Amino acid sequence: MLNVDAALAAAASKESSGVLLQLGLVLFGLGLLGLLAHRLKVSPVPLYLLAGLAFGEHGPVPLTVGESGREFIAVGAELGAVLLLLMLGLEYAADELLAGLRHTAPAGVMDLALNAAPGAALALLLGWGPVAAVALAGVTYVSSSGIVAKLLSDLGHLGNRETPTVIAVLVFEDLTMAGFLPVLTALVSGLSVFAATMSVSVALAAVVVVFIVAIRLPGTLARLVFSPNDEVLLLRVLGLTLLVGGLAGLANVSATVGAFLVGVALSGPIARSTAELLRPLRDLFAAVFFVFFGLQIQPTRLIDVLPVAVALAVITAGTKVATGWWAASRAGVGRGGRLRAGVALIPRGEFSIVIAGLTTAAAASTDAFRLDPSFGALVACYVLLLAVLGPVALRLLEVRRLRPDRRTAGFSASTGRG
Amino acid sequence: MEVEQTPLPGVGIRYDFATAYGRRLGLLVHRDERVDLVVYAENDPDIVAESVTLQPQERAVLVELLALPPGEDDPESRTHHRTWQLTEDQP
């Protein structure tokens, strides 16, 4: 009897060491990809997706992490989505999100109309049904605020005239996500019309209450979780976020919306130090999330969807340029700035994957609706294209602008002007 | 004089103005209190031509120099002067 126990224990520890080994390999590999992304000055998101594709069941390097390893990756991925939205909420204070809303609303609505329509239209054309149409509309609508913000900062565009317009559009999108995610969650969970309306109403009411409290009584939540000790602060904020996210999930409201609202409710200096503490954790689990999304995709499907993804990418790059052009011209920006604003909005990234991840996870766990197996592959291919080509396009624009500039500088120096 | 103030959610606040000679100058005050002094391009007032990040003490020095260039012997001065005479060979 004792021998059997000992043997079982030995086997268990062997298995857990095996899991550690595999996870270690995965994370180390991601670290190398992250370094590559850093060197090439591109977003690591597409590389993590590629890693997921490679490690998948049908990929070139199938990963056998066992049951417990797979569970860890699945839970880690969920945590990644929650942390992505929490950090997004922390990024902006509630009053920042609402300030100037009246002024920027036309641009935001134009952005929504122009960029959600192609995704929805394509899903309907392919006969994927209305739920997939809503999801794909979200995928093509949301620009990646992470990629865009980093790009503007890296290129030194933060001071440019068109930048407030670009940021206003991104802020409007993030606000729209707070309304969009509960609707999508209700749709994919296959609730009855009544139950779906209820859960969406609950979510929207929660959004309104959080905004009112955050603006009327600023710092309430911050005081509640504040601690001068980093460790205590980290555990409290993370605990609170998971509690709220879990409750939201139980109420059929997306856990990610709960996390976003916690982020919005925290503001001021505490939000900033919390963001600083959470960043490494977010980076780790967001990477796991992107890999997890890639894992579920059959790489061969990517080739099948490539022409469609390219067409969708070209069309929605065009609609983003049109959005930026129109919004910047309303703000009185010149032609060059209008083009820069439009091109800056092209990259899609983390939130497109969050939307697609939510949809595929729901389709896998309930049989409420049937999702076409190519959906995930199309989104992955689409994000891979725009997360890479969007930033490249803006850099090319910069190069083109600088060339004639240098010539005039040489000219003015040689004539002794200035 | 009119100074434009533009909030940049998630980044900070931007202040900028036009000089009498038609150039645009601005400050980008980040939320973490980092400050960028930005100069807009001569041929395109929409785009930043040069951006210089300033530490707090550098801002103080710049303010002092701009307000009233202090004398070398001013004990209040935060700047450390190294004045080169015209007749000396400059390094």
From TrEMBL, chain A:
Gene3D superfamilies from the xrefs? 1.20.1530.20
Q: Which residues form a coiled coil?
A: none
Which locations, inside or outside the cell, does it occupy?
Membrane
Q: How does it sit in the membrane?
A: Multi-pass membrane protein
Q: In Gene Ontology terms, what is one molecular function of this protein?
A: antiporter activity
For the biological process aspect of GO, one term held by this record is: proton transmembrane transport
Q: Which UniProt keywords apply?
A: Membrane, Transmembrane, Transmembrane helix, Transport
Cation/H+ exchanger transmembrane domain: from which residue to which, for each copy? 32-388
InterPro entries associated with the record: Cation/H_exchanger_TM, Na+/solute_symporter_sf
Q: A GO CC term?
A: membrane
The residue ranges crossing the membrane are 20-38, 72-93, 165-187, 281-299, 305-328, 349-369, 375-397
UniProt main location, coarse: membrane
Q: What is the similarity comment for this entry?
A: Belongs to the monovalent cation:proton antiporter 2 (CPA2) transporter (TC 2.A.37) family.
Q: Which named protein is this?
A: Potassium/proton antiporter membrane subunit, CPA2 family
- What is the taxonomic lineage of the source species? Bacteria, Bacillati, Actinomycetota, Actinomycetes, Geodermatophilales
UniProtKB/TrEMBL annotation, chain B:
State the InterPro entries in the record: KhtT-like_N (IPR058776)
Location of region: Disordered: 69-91
Q: Which Pfam families match?
A: KhtT_N (PF25991)
Domain Potassium/proton antiporter subunit KhtT-like N-terminal positions: 1-67
Q: In its UniProt entry, what is this protein called?
A: Potassium/proton antiporter subunit KhtT-like N-terminal domain-containing protein
* Originating organism: Blastococcus aggregatus
Source organism lineage?
Answer: Bacteria, Bacillati, Actinomycetota, Actinomycetes, Geodermatophilales
